[in-house]
Amino acid sequence: MSLQRPIGILGGMGPEATILLQRKLLEAVPARDDSDHIPLLIDMNTQVPSRIAHLIEGTGTDPGPTLADMARRLETAGAVALAMPCNTAHHYAGAIAEAVDIPLLNMVELAADHAARALGPGGCVGMLASPAVRRTQLFEKALSARGLLVTWPAKDAPMLAAIRAIKIEGRCDMARDTLLAASQEVAAAGAGLQFVACSEFSLIADSVAQGANAVDTVDLLVQAIIAKTQSDRD
Length: 234
What we know:
Layout lengths: L6 E5 L3 H14 L11 E5 L6 H7 L6 H13 L4 E3 L9 H7 L4 E2 L1 H13 L4 E6 L1 H6 L1 H7 L4 E3 L5 H13 L3 H16 L4 E5 L16 E3 H17 L1
């Protein structure tokens, strides 16, 4: 029997989001024994320079070189593909892709493909994400290329405060209330689909508005990891 080759995880952004990805993978794979689970190589690098400091505050170090180094280490260690459970860090996906010869399972592209299938041209996607993601227009570029519209909560400050609160306090009421209000706002603006597109918000993804068609991008990444592993087996 051939052994499964591992998926490399660029982690630590933040640590709990990386653990969440691992837990979701464990729950998604029907296993009778340890060997049935997907092998992972996890670089839990909590020292990746702040994406918020670099993209929003304009004062931080470029995280791209650090992420590229992580990717190279994971490839050298035997990873067959890479995954990164941090939406904002996908701004640096180009630096990662250029550093290695294995694919990055890109959450932004995965989400845009899902939205295109779910909504079709002219559909509207509501974004529940970091202001850094909004500033870089990561999702706008991918979604507009598929004929989709995007709507955001009007105010960035509460979203950023909620993300910082989760990093410090975990699944706190303030963050839950902020995410709920944002979800209600984009629903009222006509979003037929909402993306929970910040891995801190993934920790409280059950706090979206009642009846919202909300999808966590980490869940899409889980599906892509499983699909990649299955295709390598065939």
